[in-house]
């Protein structure tokens, strides 16, 4: 562009006409040349003028474009003076204010804002004018006539060029929609929080590292009560007040379960409630998935089920008590007919499987109707109750005693080994009636009749066994009442003897009915007496003299054997000492006393024998205990220890009935045995039975090799005597020499042999 380019169009016009005037004045020499030049300049100037016009137009266009950009930019622009008066603003800004630009310019910005925004604007502008940085504020604009409140974010900076005039530039971004979206999110959240807060059970959203991301009011209350910061709480702290995650069978961790199964789960925990009490909670936990389907945590809601469980327990108890009522007799509390049938059928099943025996006892009170008729029903009931109580006192847990109705009772006896055992129980039941029933100051004497049936002999079903026991009970009534009967007569007869003996055995000792017989033990070669065996007898008032096989097994079935054994031991030792003291027997002779297996099992045997020896003054080495081979085989470490201690005292130990059991050499070596007594069954058929001969020979040889004494029992013939001497057996017992006899006869026997 030329040097004139800065001149305006009118100035150029003026310069051109001035030049023409000067030229016209100087018309001499170079006029043409000058004119030409001037003409050129004019053209040049015209061109320049046209360029200038075009540039100007271009500029105006650009300016218009910028103005448009400025006006319609998506951001509102304002210039404000120090007092917040709007100097200028673009159309976008005016649109945000919802008014025409011309009506806004020159007015304070505060008039465009929502009520209450004035203070905020004031602070914002003050801040902007005191800072060289951009400052920001969120402003709410005046609500438009159609009720819309817009929100803007204002960024304000003091313009450097305008600083002298202290103006500032403010741009406004419409945040209404964003705020609305944000508010919607907040509203949604608040709504959801209200929803979970409205649930009365604690709810927690838990991350995979047990942190509580969100909780409802109920959970918060627990946290507050336990002084736990809800913002930084772990689930286990809130629920259990512990510092590590749940574990084990009592407190299974539901989070771990959900991670394994990816399915909702329920567990029961003991939690501390918001009131600080231990409660049972059902914890329901569901997985919380992220957009990729990965578990990001769990939602846990716990529900106090303490009362529910208590209610269930109560219900169960009630059910049980209803079941009890349905199966028991209301008056006596005993099982009723229904339960009895059920138990009996089970018992039959078991007995069938174990190939064992059982008994059913049918008990009917004698003349009970008279009690009911002469008193009243209440008295009858009281009697029945007491009868039931007396019955119950007799039975073990696994026996069943039931009331069938009226005055009828039934009993199931399991584990009975012999048919006669049932009779022993029946007898005991009858004995329960010996004591009178005292009802309303009246003494009532009652009896009962009992029928007995046995499985499998008398039936293998509930009906059959009950029916047959009932039949037997009627026979007992016919027999004159206050007695028992088996379903079959021969059983009754056999049982009676045993029952009779068993019941009178108790009195045998106190009534001095037991006596000892003594059988001498003989040196086979010299036929001299070298010892004596004590053998017990029962002088029964009704049945006469009874041998031990009749009553020892009965005594063993009850506790009587202990008392009886102690009596025998004392009596035998006393007698032996007396005989030694009076010179009837030598002081190096022994007395043999038989021990029952039951006695041998009891712990106090050692002390008992020691005491007896001390009390009687008999030397321990004058006492020999006889234990059977079977008892020896059953010996335990305790019993063999007892034997060893007795042996240490000097007491001798013989194995009775040797050869009838299955003893091993091992036992003979291990136990402190001093003598073997060959059982009389091997001796009785000598010399005819070659087996017995061989066995006797072998026992004698074995005893000699083991350095044990040997005694042959039951020697009845001279042949047996000679045979035993030949085999090296030195001592024997038997009718050939003497039978067992009472002490006075024994003394005469000694006298005679001495004289002989
Ligand atoms: P045991 O200890 O083997 O007694 C020997 C048995 O054989 C005695 O029978 C005796 O009378 C009998 N006897 C003796 N010599 C002969 C004979 O030559 N021929 C025959 N056939 N028999 C003979 P008893 O007194 O009836 O005793 C039987 C069993 O009862 C005894 O067998 C013993 O095991 C047991 N016993 C006897 N007295 C007592 C005792 O005081 N306490 C304990 N627990 N059991 C005893
Ligand atoms: Mg014996
Ligand atoms: Mg014997």
A few lines on this structure:
The chain has 756 residues and is of the alpha+beta class. Helices cover 47% and strands 22% of the residues.
Describe the structure.
- The N terminus is likely disordered.
- The protein is of the alpha+beta class and 756 residues long.
- The chain folds into 5 domains: 62 residues; 96 residues, Beta-Lactamase (2-Layer Sandwich); 114 residues, Beta-Lactamase; 160 residues, Reverse transcriptase/Diguanylate cyclase domain (Alpha-Beta Plaits); 214 residues, EAL domain (TIM Barrel).
- The chain is elongated.
- Strands 18-19-21-22-23-24-25-26 form an 8-stranded mixed barrel, surrounded by 4 helices.
- The protein starts with 8 loop residues before the first helix and ends with a helix.
- Helix 12 packs antiparallel against helix 13, helix 17 packs across helix 18 and helix 18 runs parallel beside helix 20.
- Strand 6 and strand 7 form a beta hairpin.
- The structure holds ligand C2E and magnesium ion (2 copies).
- One magnesium ion (MG) binds next to loops.
- One magnesium ion (MG) binds next to strand 23.
